[in-house]
Amino acid sequence: MRKIPFSVQILLGLALGVTLGYVARTNDLSWLASSLDTVGGLFVQLLKLAVPPLVFTAIVVSVVSLRGVANAARLALRTLLWFGATALVAVSVGIGLGLLTNPGRGVTLDTAGAAAPTKTGSWTDFLTGIVPTNPVGAFVEGNVLQIVFLALVVGATALLVGPPAEPFVELNRALLGIVQKALWWVIRLAPIGTLGLIGNAVATYGWDLLAPLARFTTAVYVGCAIVLFVVYPLLLVGAGRLNPVRFFAGAWPAIQLAFVSRSSVGTMPVTQRSVERLGVPREYASFAVPFGATTKMDGCAAIYPALAAIFVAQVFGVDLGVTDYLLIAFVSVVGSAATAGLTGAIVMLTLTLSTLGLPLAGAGLLLAIDPVLDMIRTATNVAGQALVPTIVASREGILDRDAYDSAGRRSLVDHDPVEHDSPPARREEPAPALA
Q: What are the pLDDT digits (tens) for 384-415?
């Protein structure tokens, strides 16, 4: 299998998963559907297992590494501004597409039986959820927002302490290397995980369940495709003076893995390696990519909530005005940080619905097809997480243009994201001085 390109392995897993899922559904083979569910579930569990230590060590090391980057504060600020700007463009695409397609108009669903999701988002989540009651609890519960907060505080403190904190920093570098290497082994299982995840989706949902929501599902995929293949290339050309084909060739391994794994954080090592191969300095990439993996979500926090809010409003017969659409845009740009520690786009949707005063039960109508939608949403998320550091690096004059072009050419023919030592921390280059 190692002689087969990783991208081909993913496609084989995808095709076989669809076939097995179809066989399981048409022949009512519950044992096969259950097996596919188990295989896909184990793959996702392995990815989630690495999230807490990966996020903490990556952010601690990235904050300390900013010491070696000129104008680090300027880079961080510009990264945040670009996160917000691209999110605003993405949510505008979602709103425009929703108004054009009217995804909920004419849809007949039993709204009486719809129930609100067990986890919902609110504007107090950011304030009350950012500081953990104890550091161990944040890791046990897998609360990403709290882990990010702890890592930022610890990293900044280590930076200020200087040389006495170097052993602690080196420990985090070593742990990051270990976690990334272990996660790389999990990523090698992505073709098998793809088989299980896609197969279970086909076996569980099928066309009968998707048919009433076909227009909405199509709108989400079209909206993400517009952002991926129209908006992002225009930004690369206009703002970064970069060839979009090179970007997608270099970032495609991460986008592809995100599509099948449905995990931005689980894809983070591949995203960071892709960004570095595109010529972004390692010290800056090690800050921007982990931070983006927890807060930059153009698919989950912009396109999807906008379309879903319009869908729910139309299904329940609620008219939205200009103020409501402005609120959707505001929630999409600001609200993603408030839901970083919670689960998935459904929570982001409940935050949007509650802000607009729409029934939270409307989110329950979309739960059945959420895994199908989550694939394209996560792929869009990861593409944005790679896009912003690349554009910022280009505009700041720190992008290696030769690396950008050569990484694109290699990626087009033979790039295999799992064929390389993954963690930057393992390289033998000296760490930035802390003093």
A: 999 999 999 999 999 999 999 887 555 433 44
Residue type, 127: L
**The dihedral of CA 350, 353, 357, 359: what is its sign?**
negative
Mean pLDDT of the chain: 81
Whole-number pLDDT of residue 186: 85
For every residue of the chain, which 3-state class applies, written as one string? CCCCCHHHHHHHHHHHHHHHHHHHHHCCCHHHHHHHHHHHHHHHHHHHHHHHHHHHHHHHHHHHHHHHCCCHHHHHHHHHHHHHHHHHHHHHHHHHHHHHHCCCCCCCCCHHHCCCCCCCCCCHHHHHHCCCCCHHHHHHHCCHHHHHHHHHHHHHHHHHHCHHHHHHHHHHHHHHHHHHHHHHHHHHCHHHHHHHHHHHHHHHCHHHHHHHHHHHHHHHHHHHHHHHHHHHHHHHHHCCCCCHHHHHHHHHHHHHHHHHHCCCCCCHHHHHHHHHHCCCCHHHHHHHHHHHHHHCCCHHHHHHHHHHHHHHHHHCCCCCCHHHHHHHHHHHHHHHHHHCCCCHHHHHHHHHHHHHCCCCHHHHCCHHHHHHHHHHHHHHHHHHHHHHHHHHHHHCCCCCHHHHHHHHHHHHHCCCCCCCCCCHHHCCCCCCCCC
266 contact partners, CB below 8 Å, separation of at least 6: 47, 48, 50, 51, 183, 186, 187
Identify the pLDDT of residue 154: 92
Between CA 72 and CA 79, with CA 74 as vertex, the angle to 5 degrees is 95
pLDDT digits (tens, 9 = 90+) for 344-363: 567 778 878 888 888 887 78
Quote the tokens at residue 291: 């931070």
Spatial separation of the C-alpha atoms in residues 46 and 182, rounded to whole Å: 10
Q: How far apart are CA 127 and CA 130, in angstroms?
A: 6
The 10s digit of each residue's pLDDT in 98-116 is 999 988 887 665 555 555 5
Work out the average pLDDT over 78-96: 94
Instruction: Find the helix packing angle between 244-261 and 401-413, rounded to 10°.
Output: 60
Max mean pLDDT among 53-57, 78-82, 198-202, 212-216 falls in 78-82
